[in-house]
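Continued from yesterday's entry.
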Amino acid sequence: MKTKISLSALIVAIAVSGCRLPPPAQPASAPDIHTITSNFDRVVVVRLRNGTDVLEGLQRFAEMQNIKNAVILSGIGSLTQYSVHVVNNTSFPPVNTYMKESGPSDLLNVNGYIINGRVHAHLTLSDDKRALGGHLESGTKVFTFAIITIGVLDKRTNLEKIDDYNWR
């Protein structure tokens, strides 16, 4: 004779007996396309004054505002020096080349993310001879000002693995 048992009764029976179900399987690799949907809680315009380190200023802003996840939408200004890195190989692990220079330059754009409170920003800049860009490093200093617009994401948004190159 077969006995019918409901799913809820089965869960209770497992819980009472001390048996544990295995955790749900996690994908071993990142999907080809991964999407995250969110709304902005607010948009904040941040102004950094002369002499401020851009990366440190953005990091302090995120900490002061208790921002977990955000999108760095745009940024402009001018610099007295910059420090960036760029990737210079095409195999894992990535190898970076660091570029640092003093002198006047225009800050043409800043974009990136704040991920779990950590700033991951890239910038484009130019002087009277060239334009270049890269991953923002400490040591990038504001000349006249830097104005950076940030869209703060909904608190439920999870960007945890979005910039993890090991998740592939």
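--- second protein ---
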Amino acid sequence: MTIPPKKKTSKTRTKQRTTNWIKLSARKLLNRVQLQYDEAWVAVWLSHFAKVDGTYNWRQVFKVKTKKKSTTRI
């Protein structure tokens, strides 16, 4: 069994607490996402992730594999 509260929490107080928690969570989430910028200072990709073409920090990290075209024999 839990102990009941001594006084009832008003609806306004509950809504204020919920709103502040939502704002704080949104701010933390916004600060967590880091973007990487190109030479023109345009956000292009997520930080610490290699791009699709295989470059990371303007260096070629891995080769991108292309799918081989399959031929069917008759």
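Residues 49 and 56 are 7 Å apart (CA to CA). The beta strands are 35-37, 43-46, 55-56, 59-60. Will compare against the first tomorrow.
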